[in-house]
Amino acid sequence: MSLPRRLAAEALGSLLLAATVIGSGVMAERLAGGNAAIALLANTAATVAVLALLVSLFGPVSEAHFNPAVSLVQALRGSLSWRDAGAYAVIQVLGCCLGAVLAHAMFALPWLQTSAHERSGAGQWLAESVATFGLVLVILGHRRPQDAPWMIAAWIGAAYWFTASTSFANPAITVARSLTNTFTGIRAADVPAFVIAQLIGSLAALPVAHGLFRTECMAGIERPTPAAARRGSTGGSDGI
């Protein structure tokens, strides 16, 4: 698959993912009547649904990363060139930021915002490391390509509730969420620590996955034959 097509898939997927996370947070907060648990439940359900859909839809095109931490791990594994990983990361951040703007526009909110939602402290940082560790472990450990959408979505849905940070697990969407002063926002000052924690979690998952799932076909994704490569078939998806 050509790089422009893969980048287009990553851009559109990242945009729709961020728009869903932020937009569903706005809708949930408006309808929940101050009940934060109900708002989080609604936000979780929308995120899980769109994540499974986007991984299924764009997996055959770009492997559906939508996440610089995932692209970094795949570059370290040799499954993605460093040049392509850098391009993926840039387009993922841009796509997620445009998704925040789109969500604001749909709800008639100011397009450009700065979040005042404080998310800081050792518990939050540990939570982000755990959330991203689990995400990468699922991505590298799933055996069949068709399992990737539901397994990735299930992990993120669970991590929304068992982690103190509600599982951002993605540097690109973390940056985008600093641009919304709504239910899902995070202060810009808190973004660097979140991103560092996410990268630590993703890098920690790499040797663990290698030790647990070491096979010729890591994550159930076989290296494509020359004929398959010409057709652009990767046979798998890699998640957010």
Compile the SSE list and pairings.
Layout: H1 3-31, H2 36-62, H3 68-76, H4 82-106, H5 122-141, H6 148-162, H7 171-177, H8 191-213, H9 226-231
Describe the structure.
This protein is an all-alpha fold. The protein has one domain (about 5-230): Glycerol uptake facilitator protein (Up-down Bundle). It has nine helices and no strands. The protein has helices at about 5-30, 35-60, 70-75, 80-105, 120-140, 150-160, 170-175, 190-215, 225-230. The longest helix is centred in the N-terminal third of the chain and has 29 residues, at about 5-30. It is globular and about 50 Å long. The protein starts with a helix and ends in a 9-residue tail after the last helix. The model is unreliable at about 215-235 (pLDDT under 50).
First-residue to last-residue Cα separation: 19 Å
CATH architecture descriptor:
Up-down Bundle
- Low-confidence runs: 216-237
Total number of β-strand segments? 0
Short description:
By secondary structure, the protein is mainly alpha-helical. The chain has one domain (3-231): Glycerol uptake facilitator protein. It is built from 9 helices and no strands.
Features:
single chain; 240 residues; mainly alpha; Glycerol uptake facilitator protein; 9 helices; globular
